[in-house]
UniProtKB/TrEMBL annotation:
<dbReference type="GO" id="GO:0008460">
    <property type="term" value="F:dTDP-glucose 4,6-dehydratase activity"/>
</dbReference>
<feature type="domain" description="NAD(P)-binding">
    <location>
        <begin position="5"/>
        <end position="334"/>
    </location>
</feature>
<dbReference type="Pfam" id="PF16363">
    <property type="entry name" value="GDP_Man_Dehyd"/>
</dbReference>
<dbReference type="InterPro" id="IPR005888">
    <property type="entry name" value="dTDP_Gluc_deHydtase"/>
</dbReference>
<keyword id="KW-0456">Lyase</keyword>
<dbReference type="GO" id="GO:0009225">
    <property type="term" value="P:nucleotide-sugar metabolic process"/>
</dbReference>
<dbReference type="InterPro" id="IPR016040">
    <property type="entry name" value="NAD(P)-bd_dom"/>
</dbReference>
<protein>
    <recommendedName>
        <fullName>dTDP-glucose 4,6-dehydratase</fullName>
        <ecNumber>4.2.1.46</ecNumber>
    </recommendedName>
</protein>
<keyword id="KW-0520">NAD</keyword>
<dbReference type="InterPro" id="IPR036291">
    <property type="entry name" value="NAD(P)-bd_dom_sf"/>
</dbReference>
<comment type="similarity">
    <text>Belongs to the NAD(P)-dependent epimerase/dehydratase family. dTDP-glucose dehydratase subfamily.</text>
</comment>
Length: 351
């Protein structure tokens, strides 16, 4: 039995990790530390018996130290972060506060309890980061590897790059046992509807425009969130201290291709699921019209990176990581989840 502190565990990826870990490690206790900002949701982890929600801020170093000591925690899985690029452009300060100062607070607490107190107890601080720290790729450039130089282009990616460096520094300077994973674009259940896939799914259901930045040809590697959780599990169990691992989905697609598949999946759902037209009468598909008619091009995002791609060779070779979901199946499963869990996302529409 182990006790894990999961920061941001009521958010999208963290919440999926809580479900994933509870299913596969039923004897472990999961202490979820979450501030419950707009993207955190109690209902995301409701019903997970091993999960205890502590509402608090990762910048509260004393609180983190208390949790590590009183709950006998030897593993931190650090998801908590401001993560939406558009929000980082309009308000960078929150990203500096949470992603940099918050990570430093956690590292200080971990160092104090695990190293300075002299327990000598085996421990692991796993830090979840993003491929966006590497910057933007040209059409023919090789995919990001763990040795790609950092070149962040948004306040969000700059704040995550800073946090990555702090984690590395605490390992090399103080001997803290750390690992870092840099992931590609996640999608799946429980994702707050500001990101592309849930935003476009829910807009399609309500007959709202599907706003496409620029020409829609920005390319991303798409990672089903359960596969990401599988990669984190591998990092925790087989990752080498001080190492970084890139976790990708092996599905490099332009945004327009993703949007077209969303439209096709929504059209297919309305054609095959009884009662869907009555539930969502404003959807074009409810009256037999193509969802693609909602596509609208808008001004491109400032500093919009053109292409991300992940080389996950190191994770495959050293950790045995292999994604198990292709994009077609992952997207279908995601749409089905949102259709079956209206009670989860409906309250978010008023936030």
């Amino acid at each position: 039995m182990a006790n894990l502190l999961v920061t941001g565990g009521a958010g999208f990826i963290g919440g999926n990790f809580v479900h994933y870990w509870a299913d596969r490690h039923p004897g472990d206790a999961l202490i979820v530390l979450d501030c419950l900002t707009y993207a955190g949701n109690r209902s995301t982890i409701a019903g997970v018996e091993q999960a205890e929600l502590v509402v608090g801020d990762i910048r509260d170093t004393a609180l983190v130290e208390e949790l590590l000591r009183t709950r006998d925690i030897a593993t931190i899985v650090h998801f908590a972060a401001e993560s939406h690029v558009d929000r980082s452009i309009s308000g960078p300060d929150a990203f500096i506060d949470t992603n940099i100062l918050g990570t430093n607070s956690l590292l200080k607490a971990a160092r104090s309890v695990w190293l300075d107190d002299g327990s000598g107890k085996p421990h692991r601080f796993h830090h979840i980061s993003t491929d966006e720290v590497y910057g933007s790729l040209g059409p023919e450039d090789p995919a990001f590897s763990e040795t790609t130089p950092y070149a962040p282009n948004s306040p969000y990616s700059a704040s995550k790059a800073s946090s990555d460096h702090l984690v590395r520094a605490y390992h090399h300077t103080f001997g803290l046992d750390v690992t870092t994973s840099n992931c590609s674009n996640n999608y799946g259940p429980y994702q707050y509807p500001e990101k592309l896939i849930p935003l476009f799914l829910l807009n399609a259901l309500h007959g709202r425009h599907l706003p496409i930045y620029g020409d829609g040809m920005n390319v991303r590697d798409w990672l089903y969130v359960e596969d990401h959780c599988r990669g984190i599990d591998a990092c925790l169990n087989r990752g080498k201290p001080g190492e970084t691992y890139n976790i990708g989905g092996g599905e490099e697609l332009p945004n327009m291709a993703v949007i077209d598949r969303i439209c096709a999946e929504v059209d297919r759902a309305f054609a095959t699921i009884d009662g869907l037209a009555a539930r969502f009468p404003d959807a074009p598909a409810a009256s037999g019209k193509p969802t693609a008619g909602l596509k609208t091009f808008v001004e491109d995002r400032k500093g919009h990176d053109r292409r991300y791609a992940i080389d996950e060779t190191k994770a495959r070779d050293e950790l045995g990581y292999v994604p198990q979901h292709d994009f077609e199946q992952g997207l279908a499963d995601t749409l089905r989840w949102y259709l079956n869990n209206e009670d989860w996302w409906r309250p978010l529409q008023s936030r």
